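Supplementary notes (optional reading)

For those who missed the lab, this is the record we used. Protein: Deazaflavin-dependent nitroreductase family protein. Length: 147 residues.
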Amino acid sequence: MTTRYVKSDGSDVLFHKIVSGLTKAGISLLGSRVLTVRGRTSGEPRSNPVNLLSYKGKKYLVAPRGHTQWVRNLRAAGEGELRMGRRTERFTPTELADADKPEILRAYLKRWKFEVSMFFDGVDATASDEVLLGIAPGYPVFEIHIG
């Protein structure tokens, strides 16, 4: 089985810098945060803008590009930080099983379809549970526990 990873072609670098800059300044774009995780090889902190989904009283990070570097680093580190403005929250993640992802993927797509639809190959929030379950292995989802 191939692990899904949509590598950046570099065209989104400016967008990431803008979102990260605004988020660091305290201006969140629909839930954006700056995720910082210790690199699994270098041990150095690595930062990336992410969309923090609040759903049914819980918080989630979804990786629309698949098994990216931040996903691999988060799995290895077992902890991370989310920043918005001056507020930094340390957290531990619990990765969801594929069977638990459809409802979260649907909520994520409802909230950020305009930003992430190109990574979902035509699948949107109206997709059936079966379709979402079928794509679930390619989209890591973490429930995050602040504190």
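If you only remember one thing from this example: Helices lie at 13-24, 69-77, 102-116, 129-135.
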